[in-house]
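INFO batch 0412 | record 1 of 1 | parsing
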Amino acid sequence: MAPMMGNVAQDDGSSSVTSSPLKSFSLMSLSLPALLPCSPWHRELKSDERGLCLVHLLFNCANHVAAGSLDRANAFLEQIALLAAPDGDAMQRIASHFTEALARRAIRLWPGLYHALDSARAVVLPVTEGAVARRHFLDLCPFLRLSYVVANQAIMDAMEGEKVVHIVDLNASDPTPWLSLFQGLRARPEGPPHLKITGVHEHRELLNHTAIRLSEEAERLDIPFQFNPVVSRLDNLDIESLRIKTGEALAITAVLQLHTLLAANDTADGRKAAQRTTQQSTLGDFFDKDHNGHSPNSNSAPSSPFASTSPERIDSFLSALSRLSPKLMLVTEQESNHNSTTLTERFAEALFYYAALFDCLDSTVPRQSIERLRLEKMLLGEEIKNIIACEGWERKERHEKLDRWARRLDAAGFAAAPLGYYSLLQAQRLLQGFGCNGYKVREEAGGCLMLCWQDRPLFSVSAWRCKRRD
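INFO prediction complete | emitting tokens
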């Protein structure tokens, strides 16, 4: 077996910030032993060899699933099962989630079997469990905290001197992001403005929790405050429910939400995409490219000005937000392309992207952490399954890179608003206190920020102003 290039997570639980076998896999040519289900070969592998072997097996399995060669795919799934583990090192953990996603994708070729198994497993999880997983992500990784710190500073800068400030939060499931903003507004020399937050979320109980916590904090700080809850999915949002009034200085925040609007309503799109996945090439084709580069909720509004069978509904949504003439709009999105029409391209992009996320967790959080296991299973694992196993309207995790979002926002009537020096400074201060050199913040041309693990951007934070305000 060829040696690993770079440091690799060790079996004793230690880890390095350069541990991912994917860093060197494209340069390697693996010569695997004959793979037999009962062979003891897997017990003889060192950690670095096991990681490279898993990458090799995963890519081959993905190729066979995409081509419909399910017997071959099944053989690879058996081998992966010998090496993967949801509580092992970073590569073992990510392999366990991608294996489940590939298996779910494979059985979709038998709709009866798939729906029977899916309905048998269809247990509706409490809303709080998903919220807990997102909270773990906030606590264990600095990415969301960085996004919130940057957004709050940008809002403070943009709203200087404003007497009435209205913030529309398109994912108001957690009051935490706004607590530091309250402190900042309270400390203004001219005193705090009248603050109004409109929170959008499909689950009323999360909105109620956010409203109570923010109202308590506003009362404690003596800030005039009101909270407007809007119970709706984003794709079902009625613009009138936002209650924008003349004279309000408006800011809009969208944290990891806009990509869900890229899902097409027309299920025929899913069938077309599934057909295209059979027109796939070999494993080597992945490395000719640079890889660094549910059912409606009953509480949702019954109709929507944005709901459409047109794939351009994201453009209609952004244009509607632009017509509200916000002073500032802040967008945080995953910096990766998981919206390719072909399975193999999505698989390659997703494996590299999530390997970086699992790698940073492996470097900063103990492997036995219950919080980490919940985060990986209930949040990251669910995203992986959606990207790999789903098509059409079911595939919500359609992450795209900032350059694509910039074109959409420009066409909708927005212009880039460079994030200020203080936003970058606040982000750098937060990272200094996090205690891990692997996390970085990088300023890009145009004034946006990239939140990185090592040199790989994982999330972008960008600010936008409405052109018609100029």
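INFO post-check: Residues 287 and 358 are 21 Å apart (CA to CA).
INFO record closed
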